[in-house]
Amino acid sequence: MKTMNYYTNKIIEISFTPLLSFSRKRESRRRLRESWELKSWIPCQARNDRREHICTNKKGFTIIELVITMVLIGIIAYIVATALSTGITAYFTTDFRKEALDQTRIAMERMTREIRNLRDSDDVATGTSSQFNFTDVSGTNIDFSYSNPNITRDGATLATNITSFSFSYIRADGASNPTFVDSDPDDPAIDTKRIRITFTATISGETVTLQSEVWPRSL
User: How many CB atoms lie within 10 A of CB 151?
Assistant: First the structure.
């Protein structure tokens, strides 16, 4: 009977040994996996694991990733800054040109309008490249003159930031004189028939040049 029980136990042990071995291996793998998962949450200093020389953190960044990110951010920042700088420069350039054009246009319109009302060639007191003094049809004496960088009318500033200015006196034959020529009975072809005004305004590097010709009614 004992012999029968002995062999029965052996058979049972032999039958369940593979199952027990598989169960132990599976339990061992589960414990090992839990151990590694736990160690991944513990800082390197707290582990004191001498078997590992390098501690990896799955939630961190590598140096290469940080460098690439910084390079990309720098490229994007450069592109944005360049676009903004171009837009701002274009805005100020347009604004400066508009300011220069506005003041030169206003000065030119007033000069041409008043010189057109010149009463007579005998009423021109001074006619040079930088000054024109005359009397209009109403008997008012008007003096336009240029002294860098201002154009003045009777001593009051008419325009500023003017870098160049000139009066040119066009004769009847189309040639130009540096000064106003009164009536000459011997050679009427040299008489001044129209007056050309040319000047340039410069504001913050932006330059605008205007030119106009006036035909006084009495000439």
Answer: 25
In a domain, 192, yes or no: yes
Rounded-to-integer distance, Cα 102 and Cα 208, Å: 10
Task: Look at residue 145 and tell me if it is in a domain.
Answer: yes
* Predicted confidence (pLDDT) per residue in 84-93, tens digit: 988 888 888 8
Return d(Cα 134, Cα 93) in angstroms, integer: 38
Cβ pair 202, 101 in contact under 8 A: no
The whole model's pTM is what? 0.60
66 located within any domain: no
Residue pLDDT, tens place only, 103-153: 889 999 999 999 999 998 889 999 999 999 999 999 999 999 999 999 999
Q: Does 78 map to a domain? A: no
Domain enclosing residue 16, as ranges: 2-57
- Write the DSSP symbol of residue 50: T
Cα–Cα distance for residue pair 128/111, rounded to 1 Å: 15
